[in-house]
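Chain entry —
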Amino acid sequence: MNAKQRLRHWREDPISFVMDNFHPDTLDDWQSEILSCFPHEQRIAVPAAKGCGKTCVEAWLMLNFISTRVEANIAATSISSDQLQDGLWKEIAKWMHRSPFLLQAFEWQKTRVVAKERPSTWWMSARSWAKSADANAQSLTLAGLHADHMMFVLDESGGIPMPILATAEAALASGIECKLFQAGNTTT
């Protein structure tokens, strides 16, 4: 399988992407289900308990999306900048460093992962808002982002303010392929 064929295969089969790049011992059934439906669903919401591996799945999906879509843009947010940096961004770094392919193609930075060949147009970004921000300022966290291949990831989504959710949802109408993935502990 040549490189283009492999990327096409990984795009349609994220489980293969995970197994080929990260070599986990096993996948939980729910992780396999999420990975399998990812290519076919625009919106995925995962209610999950603490410690089940939801942040791991978020990282895998983000790395799959950025790897298999040319000039993909991904914006990720969480309930706080600390949660985003210490949870999701750390998880992305962990899995990137297990994959020679990802280390060759992308560069991990404090708040971004960028394609080495086109860092200004092919990236994922960690985005947060000030705790004192009003609804309008919160909505700007994800505002103005558009790309042919766009993904929004809302980590710990049960605690994310509604204006941010609304902005992500509205952005799904543009582009060739736009996705929204959210996961978090249920709040009710």
